[in-house]
Amino acid sequence: MLDLGIWSFRAARQYCDVKAAKSIVLIGMMGAGKSSVGRCLQQRTGLARLDTDEMVAAQFGIPIAQIFEKHGEERFRIAETDVLRKLAPERPAIVVTGGGIVGSAENLDLLKRLGTVVWVTADEATLFERASRRNDRPLLQKENPRAVFSKLFRERESLYAAAADLRVDTSALTHDEVAETILNRLEEVAALQQ
Ligand code: S3P
């Protein structure tokens, strides 16, 4: 335990010292744990956390589910891209995104411009089970949410893969362990990118 603690501290400190010029951008399906992992990364690095869903909800002044209900998904997607455009690449942060953000080519470019893109994932059944714990996800408030989820999962897999610099399987890890894994593996990514 003690060793893990010291190592985690080192990983976080090294990240802040050496690569503070880049944001960490979390992508992945609903239920991947992006928000919780984002909070752990925020704590470990001291960087600001920006959540595109929270920013869109703040812009409309209502929760995401109500945005879908009142204005439709298309309006939500436009606002999501607007928010991404406004994020400044030169200001490093932990950027948490909604699961559908990889749906447009412009978004993919914007994500990559922001920093190191980390695909947080697990097997489909695990993701669905986690995503279903909350009932505020408009895309799953359908007659057959399992089938909807499966379709989105299949459609998005290749998009996440195309966008990501790093893929982390969260199936057997706590949120904090995922954060630690990301910080440690960013070393490898940085070395490859040099
Ligand atoms: C969506 C995922 C949600 C939110 C919106 C649409 C999606 O975010 O952006 O409900 O298309 O997968 P989370 O991935 O944080 O649940």
Explain this structure.
This protein has 194 residues and is of the alpha/beta class. It is built from nine helices and five strands. A five-stranded parallel beta sheet has the order 2-3-1-4-5, with helices on both faces. The termini are far apart. Shikimate-3-phosphate binds at residues 30, 34, 53, 64, 98-100, 137-139.
Beta-strand level of the residues, as a percent range? 5-15%
Binned, the helix content reads: 55-70%
Ligands (ions, cofactors included): shikimate-3-phosphate
Number of strands: 5
> What does the radius of gyration come to?
16 Å
Instruction: State the assembly state of the protein chains.
Output: single chain
> How many strands, what sense, and barrel or not for the largest sheet?
5 strands, parallel
State the order of secondary-structure elements, H for helix, E for strand: HEHEHHHEHEHHEH
Class from secondary-structure proportions:
alpha/beta
Supply the number of helical segments.
9
Principal-axis shape equals: globular
Q: Which spans of ≥5 residues are poorly predicted at pLDDT below 50?
A: 1-7
Q: Can you tag this structure with a few keywords?
A:
binds shikimate-3-phosphate; disordered N terminus; single chain; 5 strands; alpha/beta; about 190 residues
Topology:
Layout: H1 2-18, E1 23-27, H2 34-45, E2 48-51, H3 52-60, H4 64-71, H5 73-86, E3 93-96, H6 105-114, E4 115-121, H7 124-131, H8 145-163, E5 166-169, H9 175-193
Parallel strand pairs: 1-3, 1-4, 2-3, 4-5
Bound molecules: shikimate-3-phosphate.
The site of shikimate-3-phosphate (S3P) has 10 residues, from loops.
